[in-house]
């Protein structure tokens, strides 16, 4: 099969969560605790793209380490009552990956328990491995530790994996250990993000249908 192990991000790759969950939570939090700070949805996408959420909150919003922990707890409580929906067609892609004998792993900045909840709520197949925000900071994406562990546990080589992610931390993680990277371009229409991804990534998919065609068209299902 084309991809022995599909390694997917969660937010804005499998589920439509930034626009419907994370950004509204951030706006609500800032209204309560940083009332002078303003950020559009497009800016929120850009700042999470690069430099990433920790630097964004620390350097742009001005949160201290203690305040970031408070925001994290606030966000986690908010997420418990808001389940994002999977993108149309994503369930078919993930189930087909499993049906053909492939592996499915998740590397995300969401908590593993929330990822598994979202998978169950959306009728998605249970991942073989999940690496979420509960990982130690020094091992989280964009660090490549999760990919090295996947390869160690499965015996696969870098070329047998494919990382699918919508943001630069996923790209950096894949590049750090020579794993092919595909950009998920369906979450937003931010020109700066799309230009970077098209120019630098191995693959760019604007729609879930394009991803599905790449993975499975012309490929025979394993017995």
If you had to describe this structure to a student in words, what would you say it looks like?
- This protein folds into 2 domains: 5-16 and 86-216, HAD superfamily/HAD-like (Rossmann fold), CATH 3.40.50.1000; 18-80.
- The protein is 48% helix and 11% strand.
- The chain has 10 helices and 6 strands, in the order βαααααβαβαβαβαβα.
- The protein has helices spanning 18-33, 41-49, 53-61, 65-80, 90-99, 112-121, 145-154, 168-176, 191-200, 208-216; strands at 5-8, 103-107, 129-131, 161-165, 181-184, 203-205.
- It has a 6-stranded parallel sheet, with helices on both faces.
- The chain is globular, with a radius of gyration of 17 Å.
- The model has no long low-confidence stretch (mean pLDDT 94).
Topology:
Elements: E1 5-8, H1 18-33, H2 41-49, H3 53-61, H4 65-80, H5 90-99, E2 103-107, H6 112-121, E3 129-131, H7 145-154, E4 161-165, H8 168-176, E5 181-184, H9 191-200, E6 203-205, H10 208-216
Parallel strand pairs: 1-2, 1-4, 2-3, 4-5, 5-6
């Amino acid at each position: 099969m084309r991809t022995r192990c599909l390694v997917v991000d969660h937010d804005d790759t499998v589920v439509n969560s930034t626009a419907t969950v994370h950004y509204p939570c951030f706006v609500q939090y800032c209204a309560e605790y940083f009332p002078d700070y303003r950020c559009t949805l497009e800016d929120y996408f850009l700042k999470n793209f690069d430099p990433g959420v920790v630097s964004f909150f620390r350097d742009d919003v001005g949160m201290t380490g203690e305040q970031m922990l408070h925001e994290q707890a606030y966000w986690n409580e908010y997420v418990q009552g808001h389940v994002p929906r999977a993108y149309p067609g994503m369930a078919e892609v993930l189930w087909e990956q499993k049906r053909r004998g492939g592996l499915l792993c998740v590397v995300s900045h969401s908590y593993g328990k929330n990822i598994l909840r979202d998978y169950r709520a959306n009728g998605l197949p249970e991942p073989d491995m999940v690496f979420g925000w509960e990982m130690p900071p020094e091992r989280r994406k964009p660090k490549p530790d999760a990919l090295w562990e996947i390869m160690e546990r499965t015996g696969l080589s870098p070329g047998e994996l494919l990382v699918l992610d919508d943001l630069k931390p996923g790209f950096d993680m894949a590049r750090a250990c020579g794993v092919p990277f595909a950009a998920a371009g369906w979450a937003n229409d931010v020109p700066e993000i799309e230009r970077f991804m098209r120019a630098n990534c191995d693959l760019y998919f604007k729609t879930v249908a394009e991803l599905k065609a790449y993975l499975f068209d012309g490929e025979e299902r394993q017995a």
